[in-house]
Amino acid sequence: MKKLKSILAYLWELIPGTKGVLGLAIIFCFIVIAIFGSYIAPYEKNYIAFEAWLSPSFTHWLGTDSYGQDILSQMIYGTQTSLLVAIVAGSITTCIGVLVGIVAGYKGGWIGEGLMRIVDLFLIIPTLALMIILASFLPSMGVTNTILIIGLLSWLYMARSIRSQTMSERESGYVEAARMAGMGDLEIMFREIMPNIIPVILANLVLVTTQAVLAEAGLSFLGLGDPSAVSWGTILSLAHANNAVLFNAWWWILPPGLAIACLCFGFILVGNGILDRFQANRGNAAL
Amino acid sequence: MGLNAGYILKRVGFALVTLYVAITVNFLLPRLMGGDIADTIASEMALGSPEVAAALREQFGLDNTNLFYQYKQYLVQLFQGNMGVSYVNYPAPVTEVMLSALPWTLGTVLIATILSYGIGWMIGIKGAWKSGSLFDNISLFVSFFLNSVPYFWIGIIMIMIFSFHLDLFPLGKAIPHDFDSLSFMGKITTIIHHAALPVISMIIASLAGHILVLRNNLIRVLSEDYMLLAKAKGLSNRRRKYTYGARNALLPSFTGLMITLGHVIGGALTMEIVFSYPGVGLVTFNAILNHDFPLIQGAFLFIAISVIIANLIADLMYPIIDPRVALQ
Amino acid sequence: MIKNKQTRWLLSFSFTIMIILMIGCTTNNPAISSNNDSDGKIQFHLGETINPEQVSNFNPFLVNGNWQGLFEYIYEPLFYFNPVQGELMPVLAEELGTWSEDQKTYTVELLDDVVWHDGQEFSAEDVLYTFHALKEHKVLDQYQIWSDKRLNEVTADGNTITFKLNEKFPSLPFYLSTVEIVSKHSFDGEDPSTHLNKEPIGTGPFKYKSVNESAIILEKNADHHSHVPTIDELVVNRFNNASTLTLSLEEGSIDASTGTIAMPSIPKLLENSAAKMQVYPGLNVFSVIMNNERPGLDDEAVRRAIQLAIDRTTLIEKAEMNSVFPANPGFLPKVFNEMVDDALFENDAYQFNIEQAIQVLEEAGYTKNTNGIFEKDGKELAFTYNMASNAPAQNKEGTMITQWLQEVGIKTTVKLVTWPELTKLAMSGNYDLLQNGIEFPPDPQAALEVFHSKMTAPEGENTPGLNYMRFSDDDVDQWLDEASVADETTRQDLYKKVQNRIAEQAPVAVMYNVGGHIPYRVDNFTNYNEDVPVYSAISLSQVEPK
What we know:
By secondary structure, chain A is mainly α. Chain A has helices at residues 2-14, 17-35, 37-40, 71-107, 109-124, 127-137, 143-153, 156-170, 173-180, 185-196, 198-221, 232-241, 250-282. In chain A, α4 packs antiparallel against α5, α6 runs antiparallel to α7 and α8 packs antiparallel against α11 (198-221). Chain B has a domain at 102-284: Orthogonal Bundle (MetI-like fold). By secondary structure, chain B is mostly helical. By secondary structure, chain C is an alpha+beta fold. A six-stranded mixed β-sheet of chain C has the order 15-22-14-21-19-20. In chain C, strands 10-11-12-1-13 form a five-stranded mixed β-sheet. The longest helix of chain C is centred in the N-terminal third of the chain and has 25 residues, at 2-26. Chain C is globular, with a radius of gyration of 26 Å. In chain C, 52% of the residues are buried. Residues 1-7 and 19-34 of chain C have low confidence and may be disordered.
């Protein structure tokens, strides 16, 4: 319990400043909405029997869409999917990115060089196009597949950033000392270097999470999401496909975009806060 | 001292290896998608007749299903500059389809990229110079926000306001229907008129990134010792700002610019879909939806080559701009 | 110092571009449509989704690389199949042809005084060339009119064309309507299966003029044999999605489309008194296609339950905005008039009824497990449900249907694939349930032969025809074989039997019938012919500006 408390305190230390706190508050709001979604939402998920194209009113705060669904309810349920994709895909990306980055940075030589060449190679293929191909190739596009596709394809820039940070850590005294003390490579990499670059990892984590939210929206917009799941991306893509513009249905177009923007804004603020603190303490950090 | 032969050879060698791998991946990727285009067309157009499917397969050169044979054929053809014949555009060659779409994409995305870099750099310099000022804070927050917005959302809203409600810009398309009967100036004007919204939307979407990168670089450079020395020597503000500060801060983002330019062809996909703009992105997207292997390969090859060339140019020019690199 | 100059240069450069952009913005929109262009020509603006890959060639023989709709204006067939009335109309023929005693020879009289767009005279030679091109190039013969049991030879005598058959083939005239006659001289020396035909020469009421990224422009054929168009130019505006097309329609920059429209926008569009909608039944039946060989789905009771769980009225109202026709539980759409068993449409046994569906399953020995899903012998009724990605209306319908199935107690897992992938799955039989349209030529026999066992193959092999359901029923086979050579009244009886059997056995669960839903504006033009599709060459030859 005490240990947990100290970890929390450490994490709080990392996220300083007004910007960071504001960002955290935004993210916290969305998490609350996602967790208690089914209690907050005024109507059932996917209930389609309301009149279509109603503009906002007291019964439907955000109006209804072309199918007669309550948009506010859809938005609230959408929060769950969008957050889920963001957090899980972001974590997958971070795991791969950290692993490849630290190994390439610490090991150097042909392993490091080889790993980086692979990264360079992958950077050539436009990620969005690759995602589309994979999405249309996979047997079904459920939320799981969306998460996997985004998670497995977005770690490239992160690996680069972690690598360069690791390279500069490698030259530090404590690494040298650990080596003298006879620690193995694995131990040095993950018990010595990793804790020291946690802020950079966190900042990256926040960044890739933001990208995951945007990528999910993008895939849904291209019609490659999961049609049975409700996410902000699918709401927006439906609005576009159903010509909400023609109906002047701003209440259908604006909320999902603003929600995505706010969530990502929150993440970016937090990431920036972490990085500011890190730079103040340690000098330059490449991201 | 500039360039040395070893450095050049290494870079060119890497570019060639990358190209080969890209070609191979490019060959394999669409085939992973599966689906026999001949069967599909026969089913859609000819009641699923196996005779028609067989005839189509022969036409497309798919009658030999051996993957290695197809790979060999692909390499040989490619070497002769032949990217094959598109299935859905049959019998038009892929190169022709790609070349007719290329100018639209190149035109809009190049202009948008360059403008957005230019504007981003200017705002970034100003922000970093007066770090902590109201201007800096506003530009920072606006950049964060712009970075958080999905691109296609900006596009949709721009269409809604400027095309549909205010009727200032045309809805989609790149030229009016009566384009061919217009005078030269008329043609230019209508092209710009049609491209304005897509270009502006791309600038808005990419601006934030450039502002942030340049601002951070410049703030770092400004804290370097030689900048303090310059100030101590009494050099003018202006001279320090542009000659010393901006120059050194611009260097890292030069590579960024080259890489972005490489991604020009691939980057416009969403824009072209939102604005119905007839470029490479739309062709690629349709090709993927239609399982048109040769066209997907052609599109990817165009993209890969442009990225590789842009990277190579960046690598080769970097030591000239910043001699320290070649020494490493 | 150098950098300083560069920055300034950059600044002025961006300014210049900005200024150019501003000029671009302030000039009047040249794309705004009006009846007349600057030379006083009357232009009719049609809109359609025509992708870049659809203007690669203008060869009417080819199935891809072109937009088929264009050929209707430039070229002409012997007969035109009018989907609005469900009947054939003579075009290049004097009138519908005549059958010989033995029903194995069909003769058609060609019109006199027809000329090609380039001034050359039209003759029987051209007709012969067209049909022989199909014979010599199997790949062009989409509907296999030259297959062993059908055409044997085509000959000409003066203006009379004679079609000789191997076996009786009463539907021949319908198939002739699918063949556009091309001019022999413009295809001379070319391989019709690869010719790009960049300057199409036809006999139709409109001549090809030019194509660019935004439009295909046709001009009137002042020498047309039957009806010279009133409008001077037909501008086919190219769009690449239905949304933008619909916005342009609402805005008034196009006057009609050939059927493309964003379905949810229809109510809004029709609020405008200038916009109208023509709806007629057609040759495409959207259904939940079931793989009759899969465990569970091989049970008639399960298929019946799925059929009962689909609320066709709601699908048509909510997702298709009343722009499609109700489907016949016996499959044959309304377009085939007296061949259709009208009683099936209203038959209570085939209406949406969740309780009835549950009852059917219970009677067949299925019981609900703790998850509320029916099972028998420990096997749950759980299926994958395939539908097209990138198709919002389809996806919404799929979501509605899977919810109804859930209410009944049938579990589904939704799988999204591209349209070509969907077709591939259907052909290979690698699916449980699949939501797609089944489209057939204007021939009731062909429509019902979808259920003939000769049109199917075991799972894993591609079907030789459209029997994706892998349905087989000996009676149905026999009735269809009899009908293929029978006279009109016998056919009618046989078809009714087939339809009733299909409704009972439920090899597919039909959703709705898609024909035409044609939006058009009446504020600029008038005198549309609503007895044919309003966008058809016949109708657009008549329209005149208000």
